[in-house]
Please model this.
Amino acid sequence: MNTYEIIVVGGGPAGLAAAIEAHKSGARNILVLERDRELGGILMQCIHNGFGLHIFKEELTGPEYAERFIRELESLGIEYRLDTMVLEVRDDRTVDIISAKHGFETLQAKAVVLAMGCRERTRGAINIPGTRPAGVYSAGAAQRFVNMEGFMVGKRVVVLGSGDIGLIMARRMTLEGAKVLAVAEILPYSGGLTRNIVQCLDDYDIPLYLSHTVTNIEGRDRVEGVTIAKVDENRQPIPGTEIHYECDTLLLSVGLIPENELSKSAGIQLDRVTGGPIVNESMETSVPGIFACGNVVQVHDLVDWVTEESRKAGHNAARYALGKLSELAADLATKAGQGIRYVVPHTIRVANLEKEVDLMMRVTDPFKNKYLVVRHDGAIVKKAKKAHLTPGEMESIKIPVEKLKGLTGELTVCLEEVAHEA
Amino acid sequence: MKRELICIVCPMGCHCSIEEDAGAPKGYKVTGITCKRGEDYAVKEITEPTRMLTSTVRIDGARLHRLPVRTSGPIPKERIYECMDLINHLQVQSPVAMGQVLLKDLFGTGVNLIASRSL
Model:
């Protein structure tokens, strides 16, 4: 059996950063496994700019951001395999893979990093009524057709969902000559960045209907029309508010789900809220020696944060493989309090922290002027004032290791009124 | 003439209005914005709005049919469709290196069209 110090599952932004950082942290025999025909993952179809502002201090497109990491990976001589599917990861860190070139193989690793990313929710997942014609695409599938394969997916388009991918695709389809008739969003606010609302919709006079959803799809072979309607506070369509569009395409940008089939087969515990593995301060899952990072853990809005989180996972996978990571029980568990939907990491072993722990989280609703507070036994461990909070933008708060030494039990993150400050 | 804008400089997303004001230092009065950077954005957005443009061009001899491209800097907003027209008529031959200039000095702006990956 071939053995490696570290096996990384997935060659997208998370896997690339984890492998590079593991190498920089002293691990040598590293293998990256990628099922696609090239490295880079979803970045290769994200041809718009806006990537890398935090990591590179400049604005890059997705392929440019990926290529910088691919070059670094290659210059370090890190081994990778393309067109290779991982079939199973077990808790003893053996990995079954299959490829046309080498057939079936079982590999052994000292540490495994899971970086499989996420996949899009589909029409089936949100139960849109109507017929089932061609012309209903997830926004990412349409993006791949248009930007990489060179196929235009439609001429008259309605978009459901105002997350960033939906907004970016509304602009992209318009630039390529399609007419984008409307973007419908079931929530009363958009999950996308303001900048994308302005530069993708307003610039091209594309209307955004908040609190609206698709109530019917028509057409036998190809989409012929789509109906949207306003929804009430329970997200139920309000009769009489329907708007009908004659169109040939419906793009869905209705959420992303971490892709965790392999994690489940390894017996890794998942968080029901994030859909990803439960991880500790080192980005290690509930199975010792198996780490996870990027969108497989929690869906990020910026690739820069994927890179940062994955560097942490790669660094700690190397520490584990080199026997430098303590396997003591966790000292602290994090808890999402008032206004917070989830917190990552879930547990903290203070002895493994080198400088600080970076708690990442999302809020439940949009808020203005709140304190983001971390409490232990009622006492404030850290607090930060936030002028603007929205579920679409991940928040983080760094706690230096000195403030956590000697603490056990729960660490609660919550939002508190600024006026309540003593 | 008064115009309403949403500032995109930071996540606050200030709604502001801007109108000509001969007495103001830059010739415009901006209300509803909370910082200097936002004020600069609003004035630029109304006097000379610019955008980065990203798209793809046809590539032959590569394993993909489309090469992603971008402008090397922002171009005037009103030139976007003209620029798309140039992009749509461009055809390149593999190999192309990331950053390679495909069209020089778009509309006399000094901005080039460059490849955004190697292919």
Summary: The radius of gyration of chain B is 19 Å.
